[in-house]
Write a structure and sequence with these properties.
The protein is of the alpha/beta class. Helices cover about 40% and strands about 15% of the residues. The longest helix has about 30 residues.
Amino acid sequence: MPLVVTPRTITNAPGQFTFASQFTIGSIHAGDRLPARQLIDELATLGSVGRFSSETGDAEVLLRRSRSIGNPEGYRLEIQPDRIILSAPSAAGSFYGIQTLRELVREHGSTIPSALIVDEPDFARRGFYLDCSRGKVPTVETLFALIDYLAHWKINEFQLYVENVFQFSKHPLIGEGYSPFSASDMLAIQSHCEQNHISFVPSLTSLGHFEKILMLPEYNDLGELPGYNDLPGGTTLNPVDPRSVELVKDLYDEYLPLFASPEFNACGDEPWELGRGRSAEKAKEVGEGRVYLDFILQLRKLSVSHGKRMNIWGDIVLKYPEIIPELPKELVVLNWDYVPDGRMLVRTNEFAEAGLPFVCCPGTNGWQSHGTRLRMSMRNIHQFVGIALEHGAEGVLNTDWGDIGHRNPLGVSLHGIAYAAAASWNHQATPGPTTDEFTRNFVAQTFGDKAGALVPWLATIGDDDFGQWAYHSLLESLATPTGFGRDFSRVRTLINEVEHSDEDLQEKIEAATGLASAGFPSLQAQGRALATQSGGADPFLTKTLEEYELANQMNIESTRRVLLARSIRGGGQPESAELTRHRDALARLKSELERTWMARNRRSRLDDSLVGFDQALQEIKTLL
């Protein structure tokens, strides 16, 4: 069946079930009300009116509990000609069974073929990790809508990457100017997660990636190597200064009690200056790995005091494998790698052989990109989930980052989010990365696009050849290798490193322009998934379509910009009409970026990216 998340076994049976113009979903369990309402809303767009009842005798759809199903998230779905019976051992299992039923309705309409579906997930932990610290802080309403989709794709864990975007009452300067979350925000997100059978796991940077805190004068002297990377306090906490632990303790004491989850991600990744500054003497004495381990053990003690099992990213553990035998067996290692056959991905076995609990962490490849590197993402996810299965991982945590200003929109990452969700539920049945089968299923189920009109859009904006250069080239100076933007949004200078020929780049421009000229697929009429019961369009998906169009236009102009820069840096002078066209396009992109950003997010550091557009526009003015 062309579904996003494929059930484990589907046995076809004679006949079919038709939802009548009026039908009843029956369950004695209050926890079934939410998914029942979702199914009722789904069928309302087809003209069927449903109701939920605790009287189950005459219900056309019966939801019941069954102790015979071993996996707590498993279910048994019997679609008979006269009745649908969903059996599950828990409210979560019942929820996931209804999500499958919703996909069947989207595929077949109100008449669905009879079948017996027996299903359960490959992994206990199936998570998604969203960066909120590189400039873009989503509104709570955006996160609610995202959580609804995560749950529909059977994801059961959600984490927000927090460096400084939380309002700490004891340290009020942290997060100032970044539109930080409040405690009430976090509690509201957690409540919405719980309703959707998702564990909201806290994640807080605790060693590396501390630059946004260390740059504040009050915290400069806690840096391992102040001045590193031209930052006042560097990027890494001094691990041998007791005040570092005191600061982290303050943050933990305020943050961790908000979360019901027994898990906590203390990060601990990429402390680039470790052993090179204020801890250098200690590192020379005992080794950098030991300095790292000693600090991690202090963090773990703090975590345990809050009743949390600490998780940490695995890159530094693999850098100093001699510390692996000394890691507590209750500490979970999050092994991340975002490319196929990556150097950390292929070392997953080291955690399994050490008896450590671990989670495998691929990525959407949406960061430093306008439209994601689609095939790269799919290959990375499919391979990494297979390795997770092979070595007995606790689960999969798919990541979506926002490096260098977080211009990349959320919508373009939905495909990668859904693909990892499908693979971590049932890896064997998830279509591989070399075909567009999954993409077709995704657009059909998510947007109601059964004709596949969106498939070439996703393929074009997600072309791996764009790489990271397309993101950075949009705001790099035409005349010299100078990055535009401000602070953490200032782009890298990559134009001179682009290996594609002028002819190849021109072909990409023509392909993307041709796609845009053909017109964006009109899904309002044909796409049932875009319509809500009230008759209006789903605003979350409407914004996603707008972000697809923006991604395509950004790719076009960044590619044109490479060609313009090659000409100018080579001593040429582009025609004024060409520069004028590019200037006008950049002005439109600036306006559209601001509009789409504010449609989903708080303002946060948007202005840092908009400054980059202003700098690019000013440069063109001097060239005309």
